[in-house]
């Protein structure tokens, strides 16, 4: 079968020939019909892979810390060789797909060969012709939904997780900063929750789309965004702010702090500098 892999040391991408994975007793074997390319997460992974070792270290200080801690216990040379070995291992890309069940493990009872399923999870729902996935990372595709539509499942999960992290009560007001794909999914779920939703994005097209999808208010202007939140919360501020923007700037976080009420929750689902002005 064909599969997209990346070498993390060189950053090289390859459409490689690989054996069809074996179906173990607790997984299902799926023939992919569609797999989702994430322009956020996967682009950042690819860009990280193309950096030099020093660039990788600067981009992932958390991994450097783990490397230093392990070096103290097991020695620098041994730890360095292990790290290089991991970088040389080909890594499968992709984390959200949909397809048809080909085979099920003997401990699987929810699925049968021929079922159409949506699959999620890095290391499982890869860009490959065939994948094996645990039972809890799959669900049957409802009638009337295409595999292309169902392959967006992981993004829906991410949006839902961000909302749950905000710990909302029914009818609370929520500001959404960034109305890209994740932001628009977040808006629709929030409206289904019964929340009052105000959104902001620098792209007028995304703002108009958010309005068509039922958002209460949406703006490209930060001043208009802040004013409407102040008006309809009678000056208290939004109960929660969910940031679904991708930027190296701290502007989204500073805006979130400005519009959130005292004791409000700020959830960062996207990518931004998390050090607000104080």
Give structural notes.
The chain has helices at residues 41-49, 53-59, 61-74, 76-88, 147-150, 153-165, 181-193, 204-212, 222-232, 251-259; strands at 2-6, 13-17, 27-35, 91-92, 96-104, 116-120, 130-134, 138-140, 173-177, 196-200, 217-219, 238-243, 260-268. The chain is α/β, with parallel strands linked by helices and 278 residues long. The chain folds into two domains: 2-151, Alpha-Beta Complex (Quinone Oxidoreductase, Chain A, domain 1), CATH 3.90.180; 155-268, Rossmann fold (3-Layer(aba) Sandwich), CATH 3.40.50. The strands form three sheets. A five-stranded antiparallel β-sheet has the order 7-3-5-6-8. It has a five-stranded parallel β-sheet with strand order 11-10-9-12-13, with helices on both faces. Strands 2-1-4 form a three-stranded antiparallel β-sheet, with no helix packed on it. The protein is globular, with a radius of gyration of 22 Å. The mean pLDDT is 87.
Kindly name the structural category: alpha/beta
Largest sheet: 5 strands, antiparallel
In total, the number of strands is 13
Shape: globular
Tally of structural domains: 2
| Proportion of residues in helical segments | 25-40%
By CATH reckoning, the class of the largest domain would read: Alpha Beta
Number of helices: 10
Mean pLDDT: 87
Instruction: Point out poorly predicted stretches.
Output: none
Through-space gap between termini: 54 Å
Kindly estimate the percentage of residues that lie in beta strands according to DSSP.
25-35%
Q: Give, in order, the helices and strands.
A: EEEHHHHEEEEEHHEHEHEHEHE
Biggest sheet: strand arrangement: 7-3-5-6-8
CATH superfamily of the largest domain: Medium-chain alcohol dehydrogenases, catalytic domain
